Amino acid sequence: MESKPKRRGTMENGDAGEDSVVATMIGNGDDLGPLVRRAFEMGRPEALAHQLKHVVKKKEVEIEELCKTHCDDFILAVDELRGVLVDAEELKSDLSSDNFKLQEIGGALLEKLEELVESFSIKKNLTEAIKNPRFVLRSSAKDIGQTAIGHAASLRQRDEEMLERQRKAEELNISGLGDTVYSLDVEELDEDSVLKFDLTPLYRAYHIHSCLGTQEQFREYYCKNRLLQLNSDLQISSSIPFVESYQTYLAQIAGYFIVEDRVLRTSGGLLSADQVETMWDTTVAKVASVLEEQYSHMDSATHLLLAKDYITLLGATLRQYGYEVGSILEALDNSRDKYHELLLEECRQQIVNVISNDSYKQMVIKKNSDYESNVLAFRLQTSDVMPAFPYIAPFSFMVPDCCRIVRSFIKGSVDYLSFGVNSNFYDAARKYLDKLLIDVLNKVVLTTVQSDGIAVSQAMQIAANITFLERACDFFLQHAAQLCGIPVRSVERPQASLTAKAVLKTSRDAAYLALVKLVNSKLDEFLALTENINWTSEEISQSNSEYMNEVVFYLDSVFSTALQILPLDALYKVGCGALEHISNSIVAAFLTDSVKRFNANAVMVTNHDLQVLENFADERFDSTGLSEIYKEGSFRSCLIEARQLINLLSSSQPENFTNLVIREKSYNALDNKKVFSIIEKFKDSADGIFGSLSTRNTKTSSRKKSMDVLKKRLKDFS
Asked: TM spans, by residue (predicted)?
């Protein structure tokens, strides 16, 4: 009986401990899942349910005790809230009453405040209306002008590109390589998109004065101040060179009149057309005067061209706004002679430098690109077939270098002449091109080839160079026409060729003469050796003189070099000139005072010399191909005077010289006086070739008699 209560107490203590564990876990927020799982696994879910119920009851007791403890405080709080609500209702009523009173009192004040704000706004607008027009009229005029001139430059570039495309299309159409395609390219000029400046403050100021009834006073004020501003803008700064300030100067003027144009069109009567025209007339006169004065002091063609280009853009810009710019452009035309004088002088210095630094040797071209830039670019090729490289050109570096200078001159000339008063400026460009080629290039080349100290090889190369410069004249003319917008076909006619081409042809001939003179001068050094000849030698020689070998060797070198670089007509002239000079020198040798007498042996040696020359002349005339061109007038014919003289002196019947028929046939190149002077020196003494009576034969005797007859007849004739 006593054991059962003990067991029950043990179980209750165990349950109390488990209840404490469950309560702790719930209080800590732990997961009860493992505890529930264990209870079911042990088969004791009732005990767990009992523990949970015990915990619930325990919590209910705690809640009830807590509510009993704070019940009085809660009741007091509710009472206090009810008191606050009553006070809030009273405060709301007071605020509503005060707000109504404030609205009644502040209504008039708000009206006054609105009037004050409006007054401040009017004051601000008036201040801006006074301040901003002054700011727009000078500080931004330069920017406006520069922007407008820049736009004009873009339009001009577009027009030039369009003309170039049109020209190429026309050329292709003419040559049959393509069909001309016409297109219309129209671009509307949106002034507002290009020139963004705001005249609203000016309009506002004018409107205010109109409202005040003082618009006339404002017009006078505006016009007076603008005139003062214009006079200030037209003054040239003496501290800054014109070449550094002309763009700012002209842009300021352009901006000024662009603004005035818009004011005239949009201000509703602030400016009149007569006022703008008066200001423009004053400006044109002043600017033209300034340009002429400043141009007279410029000493650089580049500066003149740059200034001119900007001035033409100024004209194009203001012409869009209806301003007449002819007088300004005429000032440019009045200075074109000075510009070209400066340009010609610059080119002359460049050409002098090129020629003075030339090697006077044939140009060696090693690659295709060099051939195109130095030969094809100026149409100097002698064949349409591309040569093998390295290619030895028949001209020296001087030719393409001078061609580049001329091409640059053409570009500079056309750039200055274009966009002026006269739209057809091709004739002027051609005139200045002729002047460059004739008065500069031609003179420098001639001066060089005719100067002292120049060698034969140099003169020969210069003569060859002139030939190619003459050929380049066609390219120069076509290039000028192309830049001027003239169809190339119109300048391809023979009558359209440059005068300089004919002048260069004449200079080429003069260069050939100078070359012949140099060759002859060198020949004189060899021919001077004839003074060492024994003109009365008793020894009969069967060979030519030693000096003649030197002459032939020199002629061979001259012909070999000339054949490489000179055209055949030039080679023919040089050859004829040299051989004629030798012939004249041979005849002159018999006439010289140093030769008192000569005999038949001297005549025989001279005959051998002449035969050597004649053989050389025949060989060269045939081997160079000249015999195919010049059917009459061979190199041998250049020795005709010397040959006829030797033939006469060697003739058995020299008296036949006086027979008109025989003379015309065999001695037509001989002069009576020269023949008489020469045969007077012919030795016929006993120690001569005709010998003494013991050696004299019938043939010699008859020859002497015939010679005596000739002397007598020539003496009687003279």
From this structure: none
- Binned at pLDDT 50, 70 and 90, residue 172 comes out as low
Identify whether 705 is part of a domain: yes
Query: 């060759």: which residue's tokens?
Result: 519
What domain range includes position 555?
A: 533-686+699-716
480 and 452 assigned to the same domain: yes
- Does 424 fall in a domain? yes
Q: Is 636 exposed, middle or buried, given 0-12, 13-18 or 19+ CB atoms closer than 10 A?
A: middle
Q: What is the pLDDT, as a whole number, of residue 203?
A: 87
Last residue of a domain, one of 320, 335, 350: 335
DSSP state at residue 392: E
Residues 586 and 682 in one domain: yes
Measured between alpha carbons, how far apart are the two ends of the chain, in Å?
A: 204
CA distance 707 to 704: 5
CA 590/CA 504 separation, integer angstroms = 40
- The answer to whether residues 261 and 367 belong to one domain is no
**Beta-carbon count within 10 A of 127 CB:** 11
Angle at 546 between CA 544 and CA 551, to 5 degrees: 95
pLDDT tens digits, 28-39: 777 878 888 888
- pLDDT, tens digit, 9 for 90 and up, residues 429-477: 999 999 999 999 999 999 998 888 888 989 999 999 999 999 999 999 9
What are the structure tokens assigned to 426, written together?
Answer: 């091709």
| CA angle, 59 then 61 then 65, to 5° | 115
70-84, 149-163, 530-544: which is most confident: 149-163
Q: pTM here?
A: 0.70
User: Do 350 and 305 fall into the same domain?
Assistant: no
179 lies in some domain: no
Q: Domain check: are 586 and 646 in the same one?
A: yes
Backbone angles phi, psi at 599, to 5 degrees: -125, -175
Same domain for 367 and 499, yes or no, is: yes
Task: Write down the pLDDT at residue 685.
Answer: 47
Instruction: Give 548-598 pLDDT, tens digit per residue.
Output: 999 999 999 999 999 988 888 889 999 999 999 999 999 999 998 888 898
Task: Give the residue among 336, 334, 312, 309 at the shortest CA–CA distance from 325.
Answer: 312
What's the length of the chain?
A: 718
Burial class from Cβ neighbours inside 10 Å (0-12, 13-18, 19+) for residue 529 reads middle
Number of separate domains in the chain? 3
DSSP lists the bridge partners of residue 392 as 364
One domain, residues 293 and 350: no
Cα 323 to Cα 281: distance, rounded to the nearest angstrom:
10
Is 556 within a domain? yes
